[in-house]
Amino acid sequence: MMAEAGAGGPRLAELLALGRRLWDELEASTESSSGAPAVQDKVRQGLDALQRAAAMVTQLELFSENEELEEIPSADLKFMLLPALLGALTLKQVDLSRRREHLESAREHFLSFLKLCRSYGLGSSQLPPGTSREEETGSPSAPQDPTQPDLVAMAINRKAKIERYKQKKELENKLASMSSSVESGTADEDQVREFYILQIQKWIATSLEEMESIEQELLILKSRDAARPAPAGPRGPSRSARTPVKPFILTRDAAQARVFGAGYPGLPTMTVDDWYEQRRKQGIVSTPQRVPGTSDEEMQKQQQETEEEEDDEEALRKARDWDDWKDTHPRGYGNRHNMG
């Protein structure tokens, strides 16, 4: 199958080669910071080239679930690496505000690559630990208790990691010995095909490692977000500071106000009614509310009863004071008129 772009555009092989070259340069880079402008510029260029290549692969329908690995031309095998390379370059982005988005996007790329490889019988038939049945088959799976670790799965996972590491090293050694002949064009068809399949197998191991790291980092980010305090809601209107009250003389009526005002010109005077009205305007006291269904006559009667109760209390207080005074003063005390 011819893997070409439209007229005047770059070929699919050229886009893949550009993305691979930029990836290799980033891996061999001695830049002290992955966030350096030069590094991130290469990341953006590599992602752009690989994304365009992936779109062309989809348009050309190079791979199908209905065909076998032997049916794929040797020259097209290398394009199976596109999702894995996209995932690896996506992880090179350093925008912290979008880190979770980048992690999830890279995970999808790696998962897509592993599914493609499994459909052709390449690599392990098992997807990485942490991949849900819904992601694997598209159907929902029964929920698992996250507080109960699967010890058997953990042991198998550890053993698989060790085995995968050994296989990856062996693959890298084989690829290093074959790369010169393939790149120079002296390798035959079988050697080229083996070289690309070895590359795919190497990236299967890399994808599994990266997906495990992504899962761990996502858990850390989720825990950090959960521990972060919720933003404070809008506060209610703040209570305005009360204006300090200036000293004044409180009088019973206007007549007393005139008397005390004349005696103490430095202090203002205020009647009880004036003081009550001022406090009502300030919202400190409120006027009595009429009870629904109460007539004016009933209101007056209630007010009269209240005044009578106050008068009774005043009379009772005076009687008690008089009794106390009689207890301490004998009858005739202070009467000096009849003394001889």
Structure description:
It contains 11 helices and 2 strands, in the order ααααααααβαβαα. The chain is 60% helix and 2% strand. Helix 1 packs antiparallel against helix 2, helix 2 runs antiparallel to helix 4 and helix 4 (82-90) runs antiparallel to helix 5. By secondary structure, the protein is mostly helical. Strand 1 (249-251), helix 9 and strand 2 form a beta-alpha-beta unit. A two-stranded parallel ribbon has the order 1-2.
| Residues in helix, % | 55-70%
How many strands, what sense, and barrel or not for the largest sheet? 2 strands, parallel
Indicate the mean pLDDT: 77
Strand share of the residues?
under 5%
Order of helices and strands: HHHHHHHHEHEHH
Termini gap: 150 Å
Strand numbers in spatial order across the main sheet: 1-2
Rg (C-alpha, Å)? 46 Å
How many separate helices? 11
Low-confidence stretches: 140-144
Shape: rod-shaped
Number of strands: 2
Q: How does the helix and strand content classify structurally?
A: mainly alpha
